[in-house]
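Question:
When you can, review this sequence-structure pair and walk me through the tokens.
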Amino acid sequence: MNVKSITENLLKTGESARVEFVNSIKTPDAVARAVCGMLNGNGGTILVGVDDCGTAAGECTEAEANSLRHFLQSKVTPQILFTTTLDTIPGGKVIVVDVPEGVDRPYVFDGTIYVRTGSRTVKADAEMMRTMVENRARETERWERRTASGLAVADLAGNLIQQTIRNAEQKRGYTFTDSKNLETVLTDLSLSRYGQLTNAADVLFGKRVALRQPQTRLRAVCFETDKGGSYTDERLFEGPAFELLDHTMAFLKKHVAIGADFPTESLQRESRPQYPFEALREGLVNALAHRDYASFGGSIAVSVYPERIEIWNSGKLPEGLTESDLQRETHASILVNPDISHVFYLHEFMERVGRGTFKIVQACRAFGMRVPKWSQDSGGVRLRFYAGVSTRKAVWRMNPRQEMCLHELRPGAVLRVRDYMKRFGTEVSERQARRDLAEMEAAGCLEKRGSGPKTEYVRTEKRD
């Protein structure tokens, strides 16, 4: 099932506390009231351009979706990330507004607080308003909103902020009060409050964030066996969140093995990685956006094993959300760090509120892999990916070193262990280099000659 099929299922299920139909895009106030009500409740989805029976009432357009997004961003306060998407369904196109459970209640539209009562959106009564205000007063300010003491705009990566502005305006249709004034931009994004930069600004853009926030570092390790222990590569990355994402994806692409199949009737290799990289990236984005940054002893750890990859981040699942819920088509969306998540959305690293974990599951299923597993352990949340299993008989999972070697060597070329390490495996041990060569020999791409110190490998005619 794809993401758009989820929309079709919501139409069939009908209206509820977390689903509302709005007949026409010409009534944006009705959409805003529903958004406000769901923010003050458990979140949900509003489908616009749908009649009471769940049938498309016409053809909504991308321009109308963008116009509605602008309207909601400007009219619902305080601002929070919700996503507005145009989906094609049988019978037409509808606008889908996915709304998380709000963390800065009460939310207001047109001076009024709205809540969900069953499948209806109503004005909050005096008791409801009092309860929300009292709860807000009792809550401690979340870590991402706290002042980052001593942090100045000069300490932030201006190029990343400029990139955020371009993406927000050109790709997300976001409107800033003054896009040429960085302090104003940061205020618009809730990264500056009362003239002081927040921890979220440091996490997202801080040039030397690890000096002030050492828990933002990310450790990546590639282990030799599935039991851990000895490892072939280890990196400690630090910097703004977007740089952590880039560095870690490069690490994964370096160490994720490539499955190589040599059909008996052909010398041409067919290959693909063990994992869908879009799912790995989504898992990393979730870890960076939803982790508990207030845990100074925590971090993010990425572990690559021969048959699995694990992403661990400090924190816990929001109350009421279980590990199995994350595998479902839809579940309650609770943003742990809404301000950080919003900027990830503006960078197009997050697409739809509440759909990210299902997107991971969907990508892995399409790849023929086991469904990934989330678990809470060791003071954090662990996402475990299982390597894809090919149904073909002759399969060899080739790593990037081996792929480069076979690509560059011509039939008849001679290679020794030290040659291989110097040209293709400068960062691996001699033990690992011998293992690489043995695998290529077993696949028929190299022919072993001699023994002991005189051992050499000759490139065969088998193509890479």
Summary: Confidence is low (pLDDT under 50) at residues 262-267, 390-394. Residues 3-139 form a domain with the Methyltransferase, Cobalt-precorrin-4 Transmethylase; Domain 2 fold (CATH 3.30.950.30). The first helix runs from residue 3 to 13. The radius of gyration is 26 Å.
